[in-house]
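[job 0412] stage=fold_complex status=start
inputs:
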Amino acid sequence: MATPERAISVSDAMALAKGALETLRLRVVGEVSGVSDKPGYKAVYFNLKDGSSVMPCLMWRDAYTACGVQLADGQLAEVAGGFSAYPAKGSLQFQVRQVVLAGEGMLRLQVAQLARRLETEGLMRSERKRPLPAFPERIGVVTSPRGKAVHDVLRTLGRRYPLAEIVVAGVQVEGEGAVAEIVRGLSAISVEPGIDVVILGRGGGTYEDMMPFNSEEVARAIVACPVPVVTGIGHEPDNSIADMVADMRASTPTAAAEAAAPEAAEVSRRLGAERRLLGRGLAHLVTAGAHRLGLLAQRSVFRDPNALLGARLQTLDVLSDGLARALPERIRGERQAVTLASGALLRLGARLAVAHEQGLARAAERVGATGRELIASAERDVATAAARLDDLSPLAILGRGYAVCYGAEGAVVRSVSDVSAGERVRVRLARGNLGCIVETAHEEA
Amino acid sequence: MASEVTLPEEMSFGAALAELEQIVRALEDGQLELEDGLARYERGVALLRACQEKLAQAKQKVTMLIGELEGDAQATEGDEEGAE
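[job 0412] stage=fold_complex status=done
writing structure:
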């Protein structure tokens, strides 16, 4: 590279460098260290490093807030951005536009986001957590059938509380397919009859190994389990999502087994206490009974039998006396009442008969008068009607001098054409008939 | 009481213990008739005996619902004897 002929100022040199650097656009992955995230500062500062190099980084606060990542030392992060120079200090820095966590850091971010979501749903609320049974009959265990965890659980339960039957769902707890296996184990235990509590456990491992216990599916299977679930997932100090939604969280499988069952020795001591209390309770009852009996024995009723019977006998006397007097008096009273009643009845009967008779006579008289009146009125009506009938009769017309002429056939002769000369006719008068012979038959003009 | 029909031996440990505690409370209360109290005491003794026997004779029972148990089984069996 040719050397310029003329020397330039420092500022010019830095400006040139800055211009050259800013053409680079890069994605860089490295370990986060020296995070400086002070409230009030316009940017967050940190270094990204690998085995041999360090790269100072700056990220403007609004961009940092927008990407939702909480940077911490030791995280593996992938940043996107470009280099810039800071001429005032002659230093170089990488301006980060975007940052995502890589590897475990990314996993942790995802887990934290899921945890927040499930928390919002209320799955971690303490009200949702069920109490563990005091004396479980059957304990379900969902864990790997291989390795230390299952044996820790069985040994602990066998030592503490051999009374409980253990039902184990041996499932794959890490790697591909583990989530489905754990869910299958939990639901198989769920439908098993008489299970009182479920232990979900695994031994220690890397953060990645724990990932099945951070899955939403396992979290929901725990929530759906009809009996309380105790987790014993050995990865202190990390809390898995399974731990957060479980009814109880223990730090290891052994601790989970201890939480799930009482200790037989302790139960035995309790039985001893109950035995003593039972004996004392009976003694208490007997003492109380004896005391009550003692108090009763002192009552006058038990000391002097007459105190109980005396009053009753006296009452009996008074009653029988009253009874003796009451009976004859009552009979006499009732007989008199009957006599009075029958007398009254007889008198009342006679009075009723007279009254009835008079009533009947009056009614008959009234009926007679009405009848006579009706008959006279009817006779008058009939006479009037007969007179009117007479007026309308053809005989009455004949009475006034008219006559009716009947032909040979007996038909009434109404016109001269009905008869011819020489024919015999009968003439009906008001009184009697005339036998006549027609001489002439003239049509009236 | 309906539960008095059940023999203590046939009851679950928790149920037997709960009834025993109930009997103790009733007896301590002192409101019982003597006959009733005696009957309950007898029932309590039977429950107590059943609980103690269950506890003394308990031997862990393990059922595999899914999968086969592997390794370390000897240690588990050995520990069962140390339950007392």
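[job 0412] summary: The first strand of chain B starts at residue 61 and ends at 66.
[job 0412] exit 0
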